[in-house]
Amino acid sequence: MRVLLLGPPGAGKGTQADRLTAAFGACQVSTGDILRKAVEDKTPLGQKAAAIMAKGELVPDALMIDLVAERLRREDCRRGFVLDGFPRTLEQAQALEGILKAMGSELDCVVSIRVPEAAIVERLEGRRSCRGCGVLYHRVFHPPARDGVCDRCQGTLYQREDDRVETIRARLRVYEERTAPLIQYYRDRGLLKEIDGVGDVDEIQSRIRRAWGEARA
Ligand code: AP5
After folding, report:
1. Residue 142 domain flag
2. Is 71 in the active site?
3. How far is the CA of 135 from the centre of ligand 1 (A)?
4. Which of 104, 168, 197, 217 is 20 to 30 A from 158 in CA distance terms?
5. In this structure, how many other beta carbons lie within 10 angstroms of the beta carbon of residue 8?
6. Model-level pTM greater than 0.85?
7. Using CA positions, which residue lies closest to atom 43 of ligand 1?
């Protein structure tokens, strides 16, 4: 499996990537998760990225490209991968093509997940993530059994700093300007599959698997 999930903030990329990789033994490459860990660990990358992420802007392409190139070359990605949050700019998309080509690999397909803006704001405002294992919850749509505690690892749940309404709006603007053009980029390359991202999480997972199956047929 070599799938790229494309979509606005809150489209459900992380939720769906987690399920896909668990089911197919592939590796989840989430640039947002990698960056948040770097911020938490106060690494040089984290120190550069923290303020940019808090404003909802994009971390510079050169940093992101090096980071993903290194991640994709690791052994665990040989079993396959699901990209979630990368690429986000045309420059990143072109670089990805080069990275995969150098590895003798290519994408099976790009699944673009469509969700209307009102639903996105509702999803992001209610999102809670586990500090321990990163599993995602939603206050209303997917609450944990015990308030504030992860069902999977008993870790503490927290709200992301960039999930405040004003930052969500900034992220949506950045998505429209910098990332949405990738939909046409991948359509032109015959890799694009578009799905409706509204509905039950399991139903959306089925739509993604169907799209991937069609791409490989
Ligand atoms: P990143 O972490 O990638 O954020 P994002 O793309 O904005 O995506 P999100 O994680 O917010 O949403 P998602 O689509 O994964 O949805 P989720 O499954 O969580 O990036 C964060 C920042 O890092 C960026 O702003 C940027 O600064 C930087 N960055 C990252 N990558 C970069 C790059 N390549 N270049 C430059 N900078 C980069 O779901 C959201 C909520 O909805 C959850 O609560 C979930 O439970 C709920 N939910 C999911 N599906 C459903 C459903 N079907 N129905 C109801 N609720 C649902």
Report:
1. no
2. no
3. 12
4. 197
5. 24
6. yes
7. 127
